[in-house]
Design brief:
9-stranded antiparallel β-sheet; 13% helix; globular; Jelly Rolls; 371 residues; 7 helices; 8-stranded antiparallel β-sheet
């Protein structure tokens, strides 16, 4: 299969021109829901979601409030603070900052964070058993187990927009700085097949901000981006299909991170160059090596045959950074360490010196077209 695709914008403009000139509509299999979604059915090539970030519409992009991050033992406290998500020069900026800059350094070891006892704007967005499992809504600091030393942002369109099958493009400049973890991804809108990973996860782009991070002879820092599909019957019985792309300039320039999601295939591309194609010929359960089909009522694309919503975030630390990797300043914690955040914070003279203005992810636009 060819590694290149025709420029998406050109194809979509031509399709739109044909529709306008001849008054015809080629029906699309794309569906979308949420108050931001236009009423369907849709024509092939129709633009069904767009945000150019002339301003930050918080009714479209819900800010998550969580101390547990994504459940991967990260070190950030997600909040809706204007210090961590804002518009600058027509770009959405997601910037990690030090918690101590707002609350003082003593707060980390003596303070208490209760996201239930706050206003609606800052109220905890984690729910039920998940909130308890990751301690997402309440934490108390101590000298040994400090509070989250980083503040950052995670935005989602869970209520405003979700879609099934389509072409997605996110134009972004990635952050640079030790132990920064940016992500552009998608999660199920309704968990139709059950909780993670039964309803799937689509990771469009993940990266590590380290400039010089190596693992088994591979550069796994800012020159590498990865895409993944996660799926399975339970957290203990699941599969993932991942691939990566290496290139210079991911933090210096804006690039188009793209998803092509059809009734038969899922593709990931950068600047119209496809680098990851996944075709579930007999279903994802077989492709992932599962011994049974957790989605017998679904199609061959299950669980990726239901609507997903968008997420944009910048995490810091956590399990995405492997032990044993080589970095100019060694990784200051190890996987499974109960005092990982404390060890990370104690090494701030090393990693914070690698942060700067470029430690933020900037997003120029997000667009979704019907197939």
């Amino acid at each position: 299969m060819a590694n290149y695709v025709v420029t998406l914008s050109i194809v979509l403009l031509l399709l739109h021109a044909v529709t306008v000139c001849f008054g015809q509509c080629n029906p699309s299999p794309t569906t979308a829901t949420g108050w931001k979604a236009p009423q369907g059915p849709y024509c092939s090539g129709q633009l069904i979601f767009e945000d150019n970030f002339d301003y930050l519409d918080r009714s479209v992009w819900e800010h998550e409030n969580s101390l547990g991050g994504g459940g991967n033992n990260e070190f950030q406290w997600y909040s809706g603070s204007g210090r961590n998500s804002y518009i600058k020069d027509g770009h959405l900026v997601l910037r990690p900052t030090l918690t101590s800059e707002e609350f003082g350094e003593e707060f980390l070891s003596t303070g208490t964070i209760n996201l239930w006892e706050t206003d609606d704007f800052n109220r905890c967005t984690d729910e039920g058993e998940w909130a308890e499992q990751i301690r997402g809504c309440y934490r108390q600091g101590s000298p040994e187990y400090i509070l989250n030393p980083i503040r950052s942002a995670r935005l989602r369109t869970h209520n405003s927009f979700g879609f099934k099958f389509g072409r997605l493009e996110i134009r972004a400049r990635l952050p640079v700085g030790d132990w920064i973890w940016p992500a552009l991804w998608m999660m199920p809108k309704d968990d139709y097949y059950g909780y993670w990973p039964r309803s799937g996860e689509i990771d469009i782009m993940e990266s590590r901000g380290n400039r010089d991070l190596w693992h088994y002879g591979e550069h796994i820092g800012v020159n590498k981006v990865s895409s993944c599909l996660h799926f399975g019957d339970s957290p203990d019985y699941r599969s993932q299909l991942c691939n990566s792309d290496h290139r210079d300039g991911l933090y210096a320039f804006f690039h188009n991170y793209q998803l092509i999601w059809t009734e038969n295939v899922i593709q990931f591309a950068i600047n119209d160059q496809v680098y990851h194609t996944i075709t579930p010929y007999e279903g994802f359960w077989r492709l992932g090596g599962l011994s049974f089909n957790p989605w017998p009522e679904g199609t061959l694309m299950a669980p990726f045959d239901k609507e997903f919503h968008l997420l944009l975030n910048v995490a810091v630390g956590g399990d995405y950074f492997p032990d044993g990797a080589s970095n100019p300043h060694p990784k200051p914690w190890y996987l499974g360490q109960s005092t990982a955040m404390t060890s990370f914070w104690n090494a701030r003279a090393d990693w914070y010196s690698t942060w700067g203005e470029e430690a933020a992810m900037e997003i120029d636009h997000v667009r979704v077209w019907a197939l």
